[in-house]
């Protein structure tokens, strides 16, 4: 799935509770605007470096999110505003490998990775 497809591929799916899009070479979080029932989203092993402010818009029931092995370097503070049910585990976000040197600051109870 390429990034252009990721913008519309889930538009007609509204009742899915778990979505595993691991290792799909994604460079950004796919559009989740119609996935209001989504509780689990696994994005491990992609190429997502930046989490934009509205990355999870529409997925307000999200309980579990994993972004490991992406090399995430920046997460916008606003990215998690509507995710009040999200259970955060530090290992779900930690970049791995030689480029993993980042500093972490706390933003609204969540963590932001900044280069």
Observed structural traits:
1 helix; two-stranded parallel ribbon; 115 residues; Leucine-rich repeat, LRR (right-handed beta-alpha superhelix); mainly beta; single chain; three-stranded parallel sheet
Would you kindly provide a written description of the structure presented here, covering whatever features stand out?
The protein contains 1 helix and 7 strands. With 115 residues, the chain is mainly beta. β6 and β7 (110-114) form a beta hairpin. The protein has one domain (1-115): Leucine-rich repeat, LRR (right-handed beta-alpha superhelix), CATH 3.80.10.10.
End-to-end separation in angstroms reads: 27 Å
The CATH topology assignment is Leucine-rich repeat, LRR (right-handed beta-alpha superhelix)
**CATH H level: which superfamily?**
Ribonuclease Inhibitor
User: What is the makeup of the main sheet?
Assistant: 3 strands, parallel
Oligomer: single chain
As a whole number of angstroms, the C-alpha radius of gyration is 13 Å
Low-confidence segments, given as residue ranges, are: 95-115
Whole-number mean pLDDT: 76
Percent of residues in helices comes to under 10%
H/E series: HEEEEEEE
Q: Kindly report the spatial arrangement of strands forming the biggest sheet.
A: 1-2-4
Secondary-structure-based class equals mainly beta
Approximately how much beta-strand content do the residues carry? 15-25%
How many helix segments?
1
Number of domains: 1
**Topology, number of strands:** 7
- Architecture in CATH? Alpha-Beta Horseshoe
What's the CATH C level? Alpha Beta
Brief account:
The protein has one helix at 3-6; strands spanning 18-20, 40-42, 50-51, 64-66, 74-75, 103-107, 110-114. The protein has 115 residues and is mainly beta.
């Amino acid at each position: 799935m390429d990034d252009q497809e990721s913008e519309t591929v889930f538009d007609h799916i509204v009742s899915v509770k778990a979505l595993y899009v691991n290792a799909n070479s994604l460079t950004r979080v796919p559009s989740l605007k119609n996935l209001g029932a989504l509780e689990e989203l696994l994005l491990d092993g992609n190429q997502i470096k930046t989490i934009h402010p509205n990355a999870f818009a529409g997925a307000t029931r999200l309980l579990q999110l994993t972004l490991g092995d992406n090399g995430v370097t920046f997460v916008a503070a606003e990215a998690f505003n509507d995710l009040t049910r999200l259970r955060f585990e530090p290992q779900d976000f930690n970049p791995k490998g030689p480029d993993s040197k980042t500093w972490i600051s706390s933003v609204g109870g969540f963590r932001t990775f900044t280069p």
